Amino acid sequence: MASKDKWTGQKGSFGDVELPVARSYPARAARNKMLLAGAALVAFALGAVVFDELVGRGALASNGPLSSDHAAFEGDCANCHDPELREASDERCSVCHEKFGDELGVYNFAAHYIYRSDDFRRLVPDEHEVACFTCHLEHEGRDAPITRVDDVRCDSCHFGSFRDEHPEFDFVAERIPDSDAVGFAHIHHVREVMKRQALEDVEKSCLYCHNAQPDGKSFEPIAFDRHCDSCHLTATISTPGLPIQTDGAEPGVLTLEQITAARGPGARWAYFTDPNEYRRRGSLLVKGPVHHRDPWVLENLRRLRGLLHPDAGLADLLRTSADAQPHQVRALYSEAIATLEDQALGLRGRPEREIQAELGAIDALLERLKKEIEKPFASLDEAAFLLALGSRDASLSAEQAAAIEALVSELTTPCRQCHRVEQATIVRVETDQRTLRRAEFDHRAHILQARCLDCHSRIPILEGLGSEDKPAAQVDNASIQNLPAIATCRQCHTPKLASDRCVTCHLFHPNKSRRSELLLYLDEAP
Asked: Quick one: average pLDDT of 38-49?
């Protein structure tokens, strides 16, 4: 009994065998009340969830109202979230924001700048790809701009502020030269434009050639017919006297009559050209005036190039060299196709049965090729146009090769006033040169704050205008990137003046203009 009192005095007992238990253990009646209270709370919570889903459209379970762009999806979280109601998935974002199965991945992190750089290696997803919701925050309210991304999110992967840590532009830091396929001196041309147009404002002479696109941001490519022909290749320009090709071993040029009689592919122009432009002087021929992209000059240049490089291959389909930047590769294919179409058109009037039999197959092939290059993700390789141009015909002697090259030099005398000629080919000109490919620059937004020469000052144009002397080539030539360093931008883009946010110049996603081409969406079934 004493032991029983000892145990019951400290703990109490349970059951017939009087098992010791703590006095804090609830009695049966108290335990039942707790169970009822818990069941009531569960029922209330369940009722609240059902009411919220049916009447409140999930407002209680949500992290907050969606932005106005996504408000229509607020009634069903599964529109954006996976079945376990975890984070929103990129795949669900792509349902609305990208064409189904789009290889370009317009909104994809890895394809970030594919339209600007034409670097198709960016089509391969990165293992560290950032999810959409990482930067585009939802549930912040109807008026929250989901597309506005704070710089702190850029800084998590990139450098810090524009003012202190932004790296120098590549063309300044790496001293990347501009294309020098054209001999061009800014100071000389500014001086001539101001004189011919009676201009007093040097800035207007800049805009005489650099014509803004409709949106005012960038400029149209320089065009010979619009900017150059008033001074270059005028009616008085002609070739020197060139030897006419005969049956002898000495190289010469073909006359208009010889080209017409040969009826070769791509020579339709010979039937429509003015014969008065060709003047014979004994065994020599003078062509004048010489036109830009003169078909007679290009035809003879192609033939002479064939003597030096008989296995030039696809390079013969181009008017100029195949040396192209990555973003110009598509132009090589387009130019080659245009040449083939012109050659096919010239053969349609030929009566030979075998030629007519081949034309149908050629037309079908050209149509297929045109559709291929229209695809923005088509794999194109400029190396196909570089066949054998680096090697000479081994059967030519050194004297024969030198004679052909001398004739090429004479034939292209009017061209070489501006162009470089290498391997009997006019070097390709970059009419649409790209800089700052990773950023956007709006000239229209800057012209009221700064004049052209306030920023483009690497070539001393203002200093050179005060003298009639020709400036030294090392300070004024076509290869100088006359663009400002980042220090010039930082004069205005500071926290207290113009915006210095990342998105002021950079757009995370590529140019989405192709999304308006509805035919792209009809080509593939969703």
From this structure: 79
